[in-house]
Amino acid sequence: MLRITVLIENVTHGPLTCEHGLSLYLEYQGRAWLLDTGTSGAFVRNADALGLDLAAVEGAVLSHGHDDHAGGLPAFFARNTRAKVYARPAARGEYARDTADPAARPAGVDPALFERFEDRFDLADGPRTIAPGMHLVPDGVEHEQSLAVETERGLVVMNSCCHAGADVIVADLLEHFPGQKVYALVGGFHLVGKHGMGSLGKEPEVVTALSRRLTGELGVAEVHTGHCTGRPAFTLMEEASPGQIFHLNTGDVLVFP
């Protein structure tokens, strides 16, 4: 069984802290894992409030090299002295922020983080298995990777921003794992516009087509999305694929047998 707890996301409906970012706590085959750490250390406070032990985490995955996913790593390292962080080598690169604000700071991970905690990073590229049933698969964006976890219902795929395109990523994974299906896709889809979370970065018909392809042609039964998807795009997807599109919120728990 795979149990996913959303430690941090852009939205919360309860007392937990939220911020622009994403962090997921995974429990699988008796082990604890972490996917991303949000922008700050706020996910640590949420983990404490939920009774989740970050010191017990055996490994962490950095989905890509942006600070709203790696910003909480120092706080994680302060709580956990042993877990490796699996990232692609290009996660060390410098990346511009996708915004209309010309004064916005770069979006990449602070280079000093890799130097200070060099022994905590496992920077290898290419598809690899990090534990039985848990696989990292890179996509066409040089610093991005998906975490695919095997369950009884099929693969549960986590990719925090899907910069390469959510449908492209799923299609590639179906080729990489012949004979398997992607049961669920969890993460953001980078559909928000340059003017904030309330804006739409794609034409409405493009978003609608994406939703229908994911849940139709590609056979994804459940799509759990939020973060950089944005509310306008989420609404369009929900209308296009009713009963299959679910919004991620801080504190949510997803269970896959």
Key attributes of the depicted protein:
24% helix, Metallo-beta-lactamase, Chain A, single chain, alpha/beta
Level of helix content?
10-25%
Query: Which structural class fits the helix and strand makeup?
Result: alpha/beta
**Tally of separate domains:** 1
- Rg (C-alpha, Å): 17 Å
- The CATH class name reads Alpha Beta
Overall pLDDT confidence: 93
Output the CATH homologous superfamily.
Ribonuclease Z/Hydroxyacylglutathione hydrolase-like
* Multimerization state: single chain
Count helical runs.
Answer: 7
Give the low-pLDDT segments: 99-105
CATH topology: Metallo-beta-lactamase, Chain A
* Secondary structure tally: strands: 16
Query: Mind summarizing the main beta sheet?
Result: 7 strands, mixed
Strand order of the largest sheet: 6-5-4-3-2-1-16
- Beta-strand fraction estimate: 25-35%
Question: What is the architecture at the second tier of CATH?
Answer: 4-Layer Sandwich
From the spread of the alpha carbons, the general shape counts as globular
Span of the ends, CA to CA: 4 Å
> What is the string of helix and strand elements?
EEEHEHHEHEEEEEHEEEHEHEE
